[in-house]
Specification:
By secondary structure, the chain is α+β, with helices and mostly antiparallel strands. The protein contains three helices and eight strands. An eight-stranded antiparallel beta sheet has the order 3-4-6-5-7-2-1-8. The termini are far apart.
């Protein structure tokens, strides 16, 4: 009996020694596994949420573009202020360059006899420049981008804006991109110099 008890004790001890490294290895492996990310650790968006949507009604149809008030608040406020004053009603498209831009926003375009000065001079804006250049690296000059035109100083941008017809990253850092076309890009591509802007408004429910 004594011999049998001794053998059993030895077998139990040997089993414990053999199992111990496996248990430690398992524990070490569990500790090394990365924890699953919690809701608070979710990646933050790289661009700011879109703001009010501007609706542009032209003789060729309607297009809409979202704006970026988080990145260029004064620019967006300025444009929306003009929109709310019906500044753009009755203006004409004054610049179209294939595979480049469509541009509008000059009050002189109400007078067809002044076509030679459309887009030029001190009278080609509202008379109150934005005063700041809110250029952001987040928004590039890709197709459908909406930017502020200026005669050399981005701080002097006023009422004229353009829509990109193609990607032109070389313009990045030189002009403020404050929006992006979200519908009706086919309408933008049909616009020609002289086409009338019937109405511009802020889409209901998108103003902040």
């Amino acid at each position: 009996m004594t011999l049998r008890r001794t053998l059993v004790a030895l077998l139990v001890a040997a089993s414990a020694v053999a199992l111990t490294p496996l248990v430690r290895a398992e524990q070490t492996t569990k500790q090394a596994r990365p924890a699953k990310p919690t809701a608070n650790a979710a990646a933050k968006p790289t661009t700011a949420p879109a703001g009010p949507v501007i609706v542009v009604e032209t003789v060729k149809g309607v297009f809409e573009f979202e704006t970026y008030p988080e990145d260029c608040p004064k620019t967006v406020d300025h444009i929306i202020g003009l929109v709310n004053k019906n500044f753009y009603r009755g203006l004409r498209v004054h610049r179209v360059e294939k595979n480049f831009v469509v541009q509008m926003g000059d009050p002189q375009t109400r007078d067809a006899s002044k076509m030679d000065v459309w887009g030029k001079g001190a009278a080609s804006g509202s008379g109150k420049p934005i005063g700041v250049a809110e250029i952001s690296k987040k928004h590039s000059h890709k197709k459908g981008a909406v930017g502020m035109a200026h005669a050399g100083d981005p701080k002097e941008a006023d009422s004229q804006f353009y829509v990109m017809l193609a990607n032109r990253p070389a313009l990045d850092g030189k002009y403020v991109v404050f929006g992006q076309v979200i519908s009706g890009m086919d309408v933008v591509e049909k616009l020609a110099v002289g086409d009338v802007i019937k109405r511009v408004s802020v889409k209901e429910g998108t103003a902040k």
